[in-house]
Amino acid sequence: MKANFDREFTRAGIWNWEKPHIKDEIRYAQYAEEAGLDSVWQGESRLVRDAMTVMGAYTQVTDEIDIAPGVTNCYTRNVAVMAQTFSTLHELSGGRMKLGIGAWWDPLASKVGIERENPLRRMWEYCTVTKRLLDLENVTYEGRTLSVDDIELDLVRSDAQPRDVPIYVGATGETMHKLTGELVGKGIAGGIFMNYLIPPEHNLKGLEKLKQGVEKQDGTLADADRPQLIAVAMDEDADVAIDHARGLATQYIGQQPHIRKASGIDPELAEKVQAEMGGWPASAEDIERASRYVSDDVVTNIVAAGTRDDVIDRVRDYCAAGCTEPVVYPLTDNMEAVIDAMAEAKAEE
Fold it and tell me: Which of 64, 82, 89, 342 is most deeply buried (CB count within 10 A of its CB)?
């Protein structure tokens, strides 16, 4: 697939997590809405703050902005509990929820006793049952990874209307892109939430598979919404911005195999990063020591890092590679300035 998508963007969002104080995350969600951004996504890929609780708070302090986990996983919450949770959040938000859901990652999953033997099958079955429950169907389902018998959302005394909560599959690998396309084509998923810390050209490989999947179910690529998480480091001094981004780039290259594979880093250097960090979890000292193997070129290949103009230009590279809504995660301590920059760039289109 060629990079022939529009470089401009008319939608934009932010990704929130791991701020020093939880009230900051709530404040940034409010600020993003006031600035005119379209979505706030709450991270939950590691054992940090629970996204569901924080998103519940967002529903009470915002009025229009869309809210989603970016992303939760299809293992740790029973499928009925997931549907129950998003039914509740749908009510609290006035219909502004999206469900971003991924297949998690090892070694974290195995450390908490979860065997990810067939993540593709699990994603298919989990999304299928969740969608049916949110549509207020009575569901009996016998799958390879989950089974339910005669269950439905028991909305006897509350609003008993189907919950319009579009599902977005978090995907990095090409096979998950194809499966997502099939889920979109079958009307189960609304789109894909493309991952961060990958170069824009990686999108094109995935989107070719996404296109194959949706067309297999008689749909088109245009049916699949494609927001993307993009790590951002913005500073008046481009070198300062790149240095801010190096730690996160190092951490994820060293810890998460799917990011390491997609990042474009030389495999020998990646092995050195991984060995120097010593596995998961890693301390700040481990990350600092391993970061000497991660050059400026590696950082700027997978992070939108530099001045404001550098950042917006790189974000547009992701849009040109198929992203329909950039969702930025500022690594520098200037969240409001980054939100303003994205809102201004969006308004220019």
Answer: 342
